[in-house]
Amino acid sequence: MEIQEIVSRQKDFFKTQQTKNSKFRKMYLEKLKDLIVKNENLLYEAIYKDFGKSKFDTFTTEISFILNDIDFYLKNLKSLSKPKKVRTNLVNQIGKSRIYSEPLGNILVIGAWNYLYQLSLSPIIAALAAGNCCILKPSEIAENTMKTMAKIINENFPPEYLYAYEGGIDETTELLKLKFDKIFFTGSTKVGKIIYKAAAENLTPVTLELGGKSPAIITKEANLEVAAKRIVWGKFLNAGQTCVAPDYLLVEESVQEQFLEILRKYLKEFNYQPDSEHYTKIINQKNFERLIQLIDKNKIYFGGNFNKEKLYIEPTILTNITWNDEVMQEEIFGPILPVISFSNFNLILNEILEQEKPLAAYLFTNNPEEKDFFKQKLSFGGGCINDVIMHLGNENLPFGGVGNSGIGNYRGKFGFETFSHQKSILEKATWGEPNIKFPPYSEKKLSWIKRLLNFNLK
Ligand code: NAD
Hints:
By secondary structure, this protein is an alpha/beta fold. The chain is built from 15 helices and 18 strands. The chain has helices at residues 3-15, 22-38, 40-51, 55-81, 116-129, 143-156, 169-175, 189-201, 224-236, 253-270, 285-293, 345-353, 368-377, 412-418, 443-453, and strands spanning 84-86, 95-103, 106-110, 133-137, 162-164, 182-186, 206-209, 215-218, 248-252, 300-302, 306-307, 312-313, 316-318, 336-342, 360-364, 382-385, 406-407, 420-428.
């Protein structure tokens, strides 16, 4: 069946109203959960083939994430779907006001490759929970992972409800010519702009989950041991191919030497060797070549080795970095960590403000004033104080970017809202309405209205 035909069938299926039934939504969410559990090993094998990602990492960063999202919606579907009563103001008496969450219709989800299961299925789960029909276009870059997931979906879901469409740029370009009620895209800022333009042709709303350069600031008031351990884990997880990984470090000069030594200690302890179970490869030759160009040999503090056959790049720390270095111009998206030192906390915040708004930002300190400045002054998608990445592990927090790092957000109740329209309905009684708003108008009526609205006008 052609993709145009499937999209058209999804539109027809949505009109049957079946997806609005909460039992229907729950049945398919449970089915998806069963499929993931039953096919757990297949999912691990596919991703391992693509870039050597371990079972441990795949479970903790993808499978458990998805299962948690399904459980969240199974548990909260009733309260999320319930009409919300709101206060009815004086001019609308006698009446009742309610907000109804209704599904948008047919959704297109376009995913990135770096956490392919999570980034494809987490938005799909939210969209299905909200009562939509979906086309999923996973990333073609992690090919085995894409094929395995698409097969599981297409063999078990009716295509008029959920369909996984395999393909790359050409297929996505074709899809973008069709009309959807929402496009949810995860990927680079560059491609995000292409998606936004195509969506505008049909006035289609978008959520864009993009990237950027996310800073981690370490001040002299930080617990340096904790900071180093958490940063090494978060940066080199998935070999740095994580959208919210700390892209670069800003370290207060007076503790820089001590901090770098602790970083080195953890890098040795975690032992990121080629083929080690807890370290992944670079996804492909193209990204490998791009990344090794960013390693300035004169600035290596740790690492710098690589192996082309194995697509391995050793965790690499670069020091004496300035904002003008090549490594500071674009999102790194790999295991290279540049370090810029600073001596004035306030000034360094100003320098971050000069950059595009990042997807994440992190601060390591125990100083309450520094925490306040960080929260109030900087704009970023989301982040942590005294940790990295883990804000994503809480489904009660919305996940999304701001400015160049994205538009909109999802997870938990925010995901449900992202794929819903909030329909307002005012229901009026057919009695008890004073005559003052109807013609013929008079000065007396106007003065009554002014008094009622209480604007203190004469
Ligand atoms: P990408 O933008 O290259 O690709 C994303 C999707 O867009 C893929 O499905 C791909 O097939 C499609 N695509 C690529 N080029 C296209 C084109 N010209 N026209 C239409 N569609 C096209 O991104 P990627 O390499 O898969 O992922 C890396 C980027 O994604 C990084 O910038 C990273 O920060 C970002 N990212 C963001 C998040 C987030 O949640 N905000 C999560 C993961 C990755």
